[in-house]
Design brief:
heterotrimer; A mainly alpha; B alpha/beta; C alpha/beta; B: alpha/beta; Rossmann fold; 2 domains; 4-stranded parallel β-sheet; 14 helices; 13 strands; about 40% helix; about 20% strand; C: alpha/beta; 5-stranded antiparallel β-sheet; TAT_signal (chain B)
Chain lengths: ~675, ~425, ~250
């Protein structure tokens, strides 16, 4: 009985594992060959399931399912190939960072398109009757569909393996995923294969979507829910390794399932001590991933050396700017004065909600600034930066609930706890570089995200409420929400007080960061970004500098999180609001969007991002589609971010003027209309 | 996980320190008097009401129903001469996430000037909006079912027409033990809602029958997608009944996999929200043979339900579900409260709603004075083969509100 | 009596089954210009990396100024006076020429900067560093171009800057990895002149495969083949060495 039970669990694990294999195979090869961190892989997976829904509808489950499983992946594959041609291709040779911005935009666009076409209702993907029967073999009872999933996915995996290992195309792709330069050196144009790889990867993801859709259901969140486990699989198995994807997928599927089934159950009893399986469901895979990366940074089957990563070019926002430094300082001053006066304008408009938006912008400006310190200056890309934002917010809320309500003590606490956390995470992860660093920080963030659901003191899924900050020290001070004063007959409330507090902290954080970057410590960070190897061989302990930068950055992100909790607009701190990986993606996108490596760029990015969101969402429900498209266009045409627009315009004007002057003398003011 | 003892629903650590939006004492630098933008009474005035629903995120399949119901109510109220005011509806997307919901609530209240807010489904979001309502002193009708919303986190500004988990759990517990079997396995998602289903149903079952046995329990994470391992475990136990403390996508996935693995044929699968339209849509014929509590069904003859169903169906080409009914009557209760109060001032409306009895699609219900929870009846139902793709609901037994709603003190509400 | 600045003792590096460097023991005297030559695959670059710390040896030891540095991190070796240049020009392209040199100079003084200063004091406010920077810019002849971005420099000037970076760290021994790779004979001459000009007062170790060049500039030459030391000696000794002639000068040289 116990054995049969275990075998059933194992089969369940394999079923899920096979889905991961299909997902990870494409992701891993795309990752390995092109260095593309493809966040949109999950949406292509969902697209496969949604296409099938539409295909099955007219034919019925009996035949429709089989038509869908062939046609839908082909369609998604074509879409994948088109995506590669139009958006990914122009970015080769740039740092993988830009793929994050690009594919993040693709996620927003695809997801919105799915919602627009198919609606938000979750649906059932009908599978043929004979597949959805329970079947019992030797006392082991699972659904026929489980066996179907395992066999079908295994078949596809074998075919993929064959294509990769026994065909010329496959050999080239495999070689490319190990050493692109070498393949180029022997005279093969590896770039030509990218479209094929991307298309096939997308098709495999679509198959996974259909298969899993038939097992569970089809909903708009399905892509988002598999993408992170899929990344875990890829990193565990080793980037670019098909064998790794297979092994990693099965491992994660089985471990997840077994931990779920047996957590809390008694393993053995020795006298008084009972050994139980700890309730770590949800945490296990991330712990596994961290452990593997620490021992074997290139993953279980990875063959690529670490040196071959992060070779792409990072485009810093400020470089080549046309504005003189003094102009910039003046503009910055004007911006701060305008922000300081903004509440007065808001007061006359009588709409305090704008203040709520401005507060959010300021908090995220600090968060994005903190990211710029490590990303724009030390060249580290943490995909789990929201762990500091979230832990800062939770720390602040907990301090307010249990120890002190003083704003200053609360914020200080958030900074310190996050700095310590950053030191621990940094010590463990900084020795791995490039995408591995990105992934290991993601694993830590996901670990914390899963953990807050588990504990009572963090309020589980509900989060924390009922906290309040006082503007003062200790218990002496005025409650933020009690501070009220009138001006010219207008009521100035808590939002105003907080706004000025946030503005002050944002300006001070910026000045702190700027000072730091002009001091010896910051100058070394910049040298590390330019050339890590060189920095080491003029005598700098590169890892130590990175770790310190990470600690400072973590502390500052914690400050942003603390401010979120302190804000009078915040009544609740919940897991999704603070620790969901989406926010790690968002903050990277905001920093790139604004122009990283400039400190002020990411802060501007925050303003434009939330401003645009606020503006667009008041006009249309499809605002994600528009923002996503904006990201895609930016990464293609304005890669240095918003702050580079003046120099781009200047360039354009210059070339236009030259052209006008030389060729088109009759129409000197071509640009006046339109 | 669950806290033991007397107050199972107080697991959410809430330290209620009510915020005063306008505080006279202790004000810093009083330069002038606070302006007051009062709503006048009488006349064909426009009252801004807001509906905040999860249009994206995990509950995006439920939010649109809520919204549609609220919109229908607003249209009817504006065409009805019984009300000498007009509702102006503003909407927002909570994204099923407390942070986004918070800022949307601030937008509709501070920018749009709404003082009557309805919405939210998930517990976390509703609790956040609860607190915000108390802070800014506006009426809030939550759409969430978690007990603490009118339990440990209750406040004077929050009124709930949605039937809470405690009510539904009480209703299905007795029927399950008496008619489906004494050996019960509990499987629930490891978060506030799941915990509270487990606590309530197990307690009620224990009180109902001496032969009741808890065969085992298992928990999964919120949002888990693969339940094969649990189903195997449950299937190998001696249980007659498996009680599911989960809802939404979790419940859909569990039900589909349970049917595939033959669990549904083997024992009674009971889920409080099994009859939800979204669950039925996601499970197709897989939910046939399962049982659930019903908070609502279009077929019921209570109150003015049939008129509602007809109006809704003619607008939307389909019957309303539970969330549409909550949206519909939450809006109507606001309007009825205003009529009762003869004022559109939130404070006056609050006093009129508190302890008041109103006619709804569920018949005459009272918004209890002690916790502002509606005394809704509930139903036990079985899912049967339906004409369309999804299963039909067959109501087995109606349980009156008085029998299902525990006293407010039991639910942790102190107002 | 000249002192020994660098010494390797039985240095061995294996990659799997391949032994890239096999029991190499050499010593470089203070002030000496030592060259290491050998055909491709002879283990020159691996030896270089073992000495600079980019790789750690399978067996054997490296001693620098009398101290065992086998397990000392690369940056720490630089701090002790072991500088290196790169074969492919490796400067901080996005930074100004002055900042490039200043960073190298700063590294020498970084122990004397306290944490507060490191975080908050203006990087240009340290007199000794500024002085060192000026001197080096002068020496490498890039003072006029100090405010340009390094990546905007012509190739030859980038090579100068590359050497400037090494020079600014004030090394006792400079390891040069094929500094003239891919250069025309004029450029090669100019580069060697530059090395002579700015680094003449340091010990030098040159990794090179251009035998003619090596013969002209070196005090002593070490010849490697298949990871092993074939011979060491003055240019004349090497030129007259039978083994070298058989293994290297006669055979492989094209």
């Amino acid at each position: 009985m116990v054995a049969a039970d275990f075998i059933e669990q194992l089969l369940n694990g394999l079923t899920l594992g096979m889905v991961y294999v299909l997902l990870a195979a494409g992701l891993s090869v795309i990752f390995g060959v092109m260095d593309v961190i493809n966040f949109s892989h999950g949406e292509l997976f969902a697209l496969g399931a949604y296409f099938s829904l539409s295909i099955i509808a007219p034919f019925g489950a009996g035949t429709g399912f089989w038509i869908a499983i062939v046609v839908a992946p082909v369609a998604v594959g074509l879409i994948g190939a088109a995506i590669e041609r139009t958006t990914v291709r122009p970015l080769y040779g740039r740092d993988p960072l830009y793929h994050i911005l690009l594919t993040f935009g693709l996620v927003l666009v695809t997801n919105d398109v799915i919602r627009l076409i198919w609606g938000t209702q979750q649906r059932q993907l009908a599978v043929p009757e004979y597949l959805s029967q329970p079947v019992s073999i030797l006392g082991v009872q699972v659904s026929v569909y489980n066996y179907f999933m395992i066999v079908f996915a295994a078949l596809l995996a074998v075919v993929t393996w064959y294509l990769l290992n026994r065909t010329k195309y496959g050999m080239i792709i495999r070689a490319g995923s190990q050493d692109r330069e070498m393949v180029r050196n022997v005279g093969i144009d590896i770039d030509q294969y990218y479209t094929l790889v991307f298309g096939v990867g997308a098709a495999l993801a679509a198959v996974a979507g259909i298969v899993l859709g038939g097992y569970q259901n089809v909903n708009t969140g399905m892509g988002n829910s598999v993408i992170i486990p899929a990344f875990v699989v890829v990193v565990l198995g080793g980037l670019g390794s098909f064998r790794g994807a297979v092994f990693g997928g099965l491992l994660v599927g089985v471990v997840q399932t077994l931990m779920r089934a047996y957590s809390g159950s008694v393993l053995a009893t020795f006298g008084d001590t009972t050994l139980t399986v700890p309730n770590l469901e949800g945490l296990t895979v991330y712990l596994l991933m961290i452990a593997v990366l620490l021992v074997k940074p290139q993953g279980l089957f990875g063959t690529r050396g670490e040196e071959s990563d992060g070779e792409g070019e990072i485009l810093v926002g400020g470089y080549g700017g046309v504005l003189a430094d003094s102009t910039r300082v003046r503009l910055g001053g004007i911006a701060v004065v305008a922000l300081a006066l903004a509440p007065i304008a808001i007061l006359f408009m009588g709409d305090q909600y704008y203040l709520v938006v401005l507060n959010e912008i300021l908090i995220w400006a600090i968060f994005a600034l903190s990211l710029d310190i490590v990303m724009g200056y030390a060249g580290l890309v943490p995909l789990g930066h929201t762990m500091f934002y979230g832990v800062g917010a939770y720390t602040a809320a907990l301090i307010m609930l249990h120890y002190s309500q003083s704003v200053f003590i609360v914020l200080l606490g958030a900074i310190l706890i996050c700095a310590v956390l950053a030191w621990v995470v940094g010590s463990l992860s900084i020795r791995v570089s490039g995408v591995y660093f990105a992934m290991i920080t993601l694993a830590f963030a996901e670990l914390l995200y899963s953990a807050v659901f588990k504990f009572d003191f963090t309020g589980g899924s509900d989060g924390l409420l009922g906290f309040e900050a006082l503007l003062g020290l200790g218990t002496v001070g005025e409650s933020l929400s009690n501070i009220e004063f009138g001006l010219l007959g207008y009521e100035l409330g808590q939002q105003f007080v907080f706004y000025y507090l946030a503005l002050l902290i944002a300006v001070l954080s910026f000045l702190f960061a700027r000072r730091m970057m002009n001091a010896p410590f910051g100058s070394v960070l910049q040298s590390i970004r330019e050339s890590e190897e060189r920095a080491e061989f003029i005598g700098y302990d590169v890892n130590r500098y990175k770790r310190r930068a990470f600690v400072i950055s973590g502390g500052m992100a914690g400050l942003a999180g603390g401010l979120l909790a302190v804000s009078p607009s915040t009544v609740i701190i919940s897991p999704d609001q603070t620790l969901n990986w989406i926010h790690s993606g968002e903050v990277i996108v905001i920093a790139l969007f604004g122009g990283m490596g400039t400190l002020y760029g990411p802060m501007i990015g925050s303003g434009v991002f939330f401003g645009a969101e606020e503006f667009l969402s008041s006009y249309t429900d499809q605002w994600r589609l528009i923002i996503g498209t904006m990201f895609i266009l930016f990464v293609l045409f304005v890669p240095r971010g918003i702050v580079s627009i003046p120099s781009l315009v200047a360039q354009r004007l210059e070339t236009a003027n030259n052209a006008d002057g030389a060729v088109d003398m009759d129409e000197p003011d071509v640009r006046s209309d339109d | 996980m669950s806290s033991e003892g007397t107050s199972p629903d107080s697991s959410v650590g809430i330290d209620r320190s009510r915020r005063q939006f306008i505080a006279a004492a202790g004000a810093v630098g009083v330069l002038g008097l606070a302006g007051c933008q009062g709503g006048s009474t009488g006349g064909e005035e426009a009252v801004t009401v807001a509906s905040l629903n999860p249009m994206t995120g995990p509950y995006s399949s439920l939010g649109p129903g809520q919204r549609t119901g609220a919109e229908l109510a607003v249209a009817e109220i504006n065409n009805n001469d019984d009300y000498d005011f007009e509702f102006e509806l503003v909407t927002g997307d909570t994204e099923t996430e407390a942070g986004a919901a918070q800022s949307e609530a601030q937008r509709v209240v501070q920018e749009e000037g709404a003082e009557f807010v309805f919405g939210a489904i998930s517990s976390s979001v509703a609790l956040g909006l609860n607190d915000f309502a108390a802070q800014s002193e506006h009426i809030y009708f939550p759409g969430g079912a978690a007990v603490p919303i009118t339990g440990s986190a209750c406040n004077e500004w929050v009124f709930r027409f949605e039937t809470n988990t405690a009510q539904i759990a009480e209703a299905i517990s007795a029927y399950s033990v008496n008619n489906l079997g004494n050996n019960v396995w509990f499987h629930y998602a490891d978060y506030a809602y799941g915990d509270s289903v487990y606590n309530r149903t197990s307690r009620r079952m224990e009180n109902t029958s001496d032969d009741y046995t808890e065969v085992g329990t298992s928990t999964s994470e919120l949002g888990a997608s693969n339940y094969g391992s649990f189903i195997t475990q449950i299937s190998n136990s001696e249980a007659d009944v498996v009680m599911l403390g989960m809802t939404g996508g979790d419940l859909v996935n569990f039900t589909n996999q349970a049917a595939d693995q033959g669990l549904t044929d083997q024992m009674a699968v009971v889920g409080p929200t099994q009859t939800f339209q979204s669950v039925r849509a996601g499970t197709g014929s897989n939910s046939v043979g399962t049982f659930g509590g019903a908070r609502y069904d279009p077929s019921i003859e209570t109150g003015d339900n049939q008129a509602f169903v007809e109006a809704y169906a003619s607008e939307n080409d389909r019957d309303p579900g539970n969330f549409a009914r909550v949206g519909y009557d939450s809006m109507r209760l606001m309007a009825k409260g205003m009529n009762e109060a003869g004022s559109t001032e939130p404070g006056d409306v609050r006093d009129a709603l508190e302890g008041g009895t109103f006619t709804t699609v569920l018949g005459d219900i009272t918004l209890r004075e002690s916790d502002h929870q509606a005394t809704n009846p509930t139903w036990m139902a079985e899912l049967v083969e339906g004409g369309s793709d999804s299963a039909d609901v067959e109501l087995l037994e109606q349980v009156p509100g008085s029998e299902t709603l525990p006293p407010a003190s039991d639910l942790g509400c102190e107002m | 009596m000249t002192e020994t600045v660098l010494e390797t003792d039985g240095l061995t590096k294996r990659f799997g089954k391949l032994t890239a460097v096999d029991d190499v023991s050499l010593s470089v005297a203070d002030g000496e210009f030592r060259s290491v030559i050998g055909p491709n695959g002879a283990g020159k670059t691996t030896t270089f990396n073992l000495i600079t710390g980019a790789l750690s040896p399978s067996e054997g030891a490296v001693r620098f100024k009398g101290e065992d540095i086998t397990n000392v991190a690369p940056h720490e070796r630089v701090g002790r006076g072991l500088g290196r240049s790169f074969q492919i020009t490796n400067v901080f392209g996005g930074l100004t020429v002055r900042e490039n040199v200043r960073l190298a100079a700063q590294s020498v003084y970084s122990d004397e900067i306290n944490p507060g200063e490191a975080l908050f004091r203006d990087k240009n406010g340290f007199d000794e560093i500024a002085e060192q920077t000026r001197t080096v810019l002068e020496q490498i002849g890039l003072r006029d171009r100090a405010d340009e971005h390094a990546e905007a420099l012509a190739y030859g000037d980038q090579r100068r800057l590359e050497l400037g970076l090494v020079l600014a760290t004030d090394p006792a021994l400079v390891m040069l990895d094929e500094p003239t790779a891919g250069m025309s004979s004029e450029e090669t001459q100019a580069t060697m002149n530059l090395i002579d000009e700015v680094l003449s007062d340091r010990s030098l170790m040159l990794i090179e495969h251009d035998i003619d060049l090596v013969m002209r500039v070196s005090d002593r030459i070490t010849v490697l083949t298949r990871g092993e030391e074939l011979a060491s000696g003055t240019p004349e000794e090497i030129a007259n060495n039978e083994d070298v002639r058989d293994a290297y000068l006669g055979g492989v040289r094209e």
